[in-house]
Specification:
It is a single chain. The chain is an alpha+beta fold. The chain is built from 13 helices and 26 strands. Helix content is 22%, strand content 26%. An eight-stranded antiparallel beta sheet has the order 17-16-15-14-21-12-25-24. Strands 4-5-2-6-9-3-10 form a seven-stranded mixed beta sheet, sandwiched between helices. It has a six-stranded antiparallel beta sheet with strand order 20-19-18-13-22-23. Strand 7 and strand 8 form a beta hairpin. Helix 8 runs parallel beside helix 10. Pfam families: Laminin_G_3, Phosphodiest. Keywords: Signal. This is DUF4983 domain-containing protein.
Length: 562
């Protein structure tokens, strides 16, 4: 029972870790059995990244060595996209998304803040090998032909200088054979990416397919070397095979993740049901800084914005939750924003104070959107002439109210397009989940809105060509809302927010997917660092700032029981 209590305490700590992190995930109830002593075997981690190999290509090519591991793996073929190749590696190593580490270029230097955020600090996040070195008395290694990546890691006991994948394989085998104290090793293969750049990142490119199969052979060599280690019977290896991105370095595609251990049962990691974010405080938000003027609406532009929203409560005060505006201070505001009022109504506020126009003008919905249900909210702004610019509100395809906002003049403002509480605002923070944000560069007609309410395939919308921004907002993990329409920029998530598993509670415009499991586990590059620390029994503290999900804790019954 002493052993049981020890392991039970460990499980409680892991549960507390999830609650304490900025990005949270729903967890199933714990299952308790007699568990084995974690100190019996030495835990070790091998991470292998095959750069440029997408999940779809891996599944279609089905290389034999990697496929043989799947029956004892937690695996996914649709790991979320990363912004660039370097961004993917930074996320894998630090456990943080681009919104935090700001690394996208091959020199691994953080991108500088734009003019709108120039006074904000850029935080430098430690890499996973740094944490392993601090908390465990083991050796670490990184083997990569990418010099900038090797220099970015800095702290590793073994970092051989290699120039190609054959040398990567040979150096990895040498380290495995010679270092009994090795605890965590990261291996990087690049030939697949090089082959894809000449002819395409798909199985139809013979060079790409052959590179995948050759790299798969190297993976087999490495796995066999692990199993052939002198002390293997006393070691407990987690082998993670993944990629920094699918496709090209600058036009990335979905990746893959395969976490292998002989004790694991086969399980496909994927979203189950609908998985939106819940915002419920003053720090959580999603933003996009519009440097190109894509979402500038000026004095005479027509446009439409629509978003599905599920409010969790009626706020105790004015609660702005979406917009592109300055703070509302008395009668002063420039731009437009949506708010949820104490009486339960949805309110739109506009103003042009900084542009020589009038200040605050508000219009409220006829109906209250209520709580606990999805509502489709639409705002259209139609420019008619210099004295008439009509703002109209619709809820679930039904007209609510309209006003003439021409006296506000230009609504342009160099603020972020944001979902969630605006940084610095003095209103209250509401609790809500958003989904399916669509931005049109035209004012949709009343009949178009009514006739297309609940449309799940935007390509069938009569104004599809007028869309300039679309975000599904159902990634289920990570620190980014990815654009779901060609050319749509990503929105960065920041602050405190919670990814939810709503099961079969879908907005009207979302395609309903089957609820395949009580576990909804979409995968992300940030998970790699979190899984590494979890397997090495290193507590993931809140000040690590990690976004990754150490989802293996959901399966401990498989590998901790006797």
């Amino acid at each position: 029972m002493k052993l049981y209590n020890k392991i039970l305490s460990m499980l409680c700590i892991l549960s507390a870790m999830t609650v304490a992190s900025c990005t949270k995930y729903d967890n199933p109830p714990p299952v308790f059995e007699e568990l084995k002593d974690l100190t019996t075997n030495q835990r070790k981690v091998m991470v292998i990244s095959i750069d440029g190999l997408g999940g779809t290509s891996l599944e279609k090519i089905a290389p034999p060595q990697i496929m043989a591991l799947q029956k004892n793996s937690k695996f996914a073929y649709n790991t979320l996209k990363t912004e660039t190749g370097a961004a993917g590696w930074a996320s894998m190593l630090t456990g943080t998304g681009y919104a935090k580490h700001k690394i996208s270029n091959d020199d691994f230097e953080a991108d500088q803040n734009d003019d709108n955020h120039q006074h904000e600090n850029i935080t430098s996040y430690r890499n996973v090998l740094d944490y392993v070195t601090q908390y465990r008395s083991v050796k670490t290694a990184i083997v990569t032909p990418w010099e900038d990546l090797r220099n970015f890691v800095k702290i590793a006991d073994f970092a051989p200088v290699v120039s190609n994948d054959v040398q990567v394989k040979d150096s990895t085998l040498n380290i495995l054979n010679q270092s009994r104290a090795l605890g965590t090793i990261i291996v990087n293969f690049k030939d697949v990416e090089k082959a894809g750049e000449n002819g395409g990142f798909n199985e139809g490119n013979a060079n790409f397919k052959n590179a995948v199969l050759k790299t798969d052979e190297y993976v087999g060599n490495i796995v066999n070397a692990i199993k052939g280690r002198e002390n293997y019977e006393k070691e407990d290896w987690l082998i993670i095979i993944t990629t920094n991105h699918g496709g090209g370095a600058d036009e990335t595609d979905f990746g893959f993740t395969m976490a292998y251990n002989p004790a694991f049962q086969e399980f496909k990691l994927q979203k189950s049901g609908f998985n939106p974010v819940r915002f419920d405080n003053k720090t959580g938000r999603a933003t996009f800084h519009d440097e190109t003027g894509r979402f500038d609406v000026g004095e005479n532009k027509s446009f439409t914005v629509q978003m599905d929203v599920k409010f969790n409560n009626v706020p105790g005060g004015y609660s702005s939750f979406f917009g592109k505006s300055t703070n509302l201070s008395g009668q002063n505001i420039t731009g437009w924003q949506w708010a949820h009022y104490p009486g339960g109504k949805w309110v739109v506020t506009v103003g042009g104070t900084l542009n020589g126009g009038s200040g605050k003008q508000e219009v409220s919905s006829e109906e209250a959107p209520g709580t606990g249900v999805w509502r489709n909210l639409i705002m259209t702004v139609e420019y008619v002439n210099s004295s008439t610019r009509t703002l109209s509100m619709y809820m679930d395809g039904k007209f609510q109210k309209s006003i003439n906002i021409s006296a506000r003049k230009s609504l342009n403002i160099g603020e972020d397009l944001r979902v969630g509480h605006r940084a610095g605002d003095n209103d209250v923070a509401g609790s809500f989940s958003p989904a399916n944000l669509v931005y049109y560069n035209t004012a949709l007609s009343a009949s178009t809105i009514t006739n297309n309410y609940g449309l799940k395939d935007l390509t069938k919308h009569p104004n599809y060509a007028d869309i300039i921004g679309y975000w599904p907002m159902d990634e289920g993990t990570g620190g980014m809302y990815f654009g779901g329409y060609p050319g749509t920029p990503n929105m960065s998530l920041s602050g405190s927010y919670v990814w939810l598993n709503m099961g079969d509670s879908y907005p009207s415009a979302s395609t309903v997917m089957p609820v395949t499991s009580s576990l909804s586990i979409p995968t992300n590059a940030t998970d790699i660092a979190a899984l590494t620390l979890y397997w090495m029994n290193i507590e993931i503290l809140a000040d690590f700032g990690m976004d990754g999900n150490p989802y293996l804790e959901n399966f401990e019954i498989e590998f901790l029981k006797d």
